[in-house]
Amino acid sequence: MSKFVLLLAATLSVGALSVPAAAADTANVAKPTAVAPKFSTAGTDIGTLLDNPEAKAIVEKHIPGLTTNDQIEMARPMTLKAIQQYAPEQVTDERLAAIDVDLSKLK
User: Fold this and answer.
1) Domain ranges of the chain
2) How crowded is residue 57: how many other Cβ atoms within 10 Å of its Cβ?
3) pTM above 0.85, yes or no
4) What residues are paired with 79 via a beta bridge?
């Protein structure tokens, strides 16, 4: 058993020495992660979008009249993607995609 431990220790130390210094340094560097957009049509509830003036303007730009609809208050806990099934002519995939593009530009 002690021969195994010595062999393992020797293998590990040789392996550690054979790694170039540059590669060893980059192994511990954190890789950048993608930053999720602040708002999205599938992940952000309508109430949050309505409460942000810039986001609300984007929704109104792409789906005119939606933010002033009499029933919009009932939809506050839902996402735009979720209400698409109730108004497929107004809340189209193309409009949702365009809204997502504009929402991604918000800081």
Assistant:
1) 46-104
2) 13
3) no
4) 45
Which residues partner with 45 through β-bridges? 79
Which candidate, 45, 49, 39, 35, places its Cα nearest to that of 81? 45
User: What size, in residues, is the chain?
Assistant: 107
- Separation between Cα atoms, residue 73 and residue 96, nearest integer Å: 19
pLDDT, one tens digit per residue, over 21-49 is: 555 555 566 666 666 679 999 999 999 99
CA distance 10 to 62: 66
Rounded to whole angstroms, how far apart are CA atoms 36 and 79? 17
Residues 6 or more apart in contact with residue 57 via CB below 8 angstroms: none
What number is the average pLDDT over the span 80-97? 97
Tokens (6 digits) for 99: 């809204």
Beta-carbon contacts of residue 46 (< 8 Å; ≥ 6 apart):
72, 75, 76, 77, 78, 79, 80, 83
